[in-house]
Amino acid sequence: MSVSAIVSYDGTPNDDDALALARVLAGAGAELTLAYVRHDPAAPDAAWAQELLMRGVAALGDTAAQTRVVVNPSTSQGLRELAASEQAQLVIFGSDYRTACGRIAPQRSTQALLDGGSTAIAIAPAGYRAREIETIGLLAGLDDHASIDTAHALTQHFQATVTDRSYNIDLLIVGSRPEAQVGRTLISAQAENALVGTAAPVLVVARGVALDFHSPIYIA
Description:
It is built from 6 helices and 9 strands, in the order E-H-E-H-E-H-E-H-E-E-H-E-E-H-E. By secondary structure, the chain is of the alpha/beta class.
């Protein structure tokens, strides 16, 4: 089963960064759905929202994607419910709009899903432009087989190397804390510091749930 990924998209520059990261992960086998969360069900903007998503699909070029317009007063809750209904394993975000170019800062809705959410979370740096994945950083415990397996699958796909550093890399994979429930994300203070200190995209893996990017799975 391929990785089903939702891309949170509202047409802002930082969500264009999310599209760029989505293209990279689609190249590794992720199936994309662009989602826009409308907060007011009475607002007459449904057609506009669909047009916005179609512009996002066009920006993906030859990368295929479905679209969903979700109505929910909370962006994070709307994405949480969509992920559950679509059985998605991953949600992709851009950074907060105030983030300096080349840095990562979770949006408010991203942070809400990082704190006990039921999917993996990927975050693109501000101003991100897709580039070849040659070096993958891995920040995970020795018993975190889900993160190790995910990293190995991606290194196999991209013919990349894996390292334990969070700098001079093309992607950082972060594992959830050991006390997190299986299938939930929960990162440590050390991981949070690494997340905001790296210039690479970040992929936070839910506890105990590896992402299958169509590569041989390594058993640690």
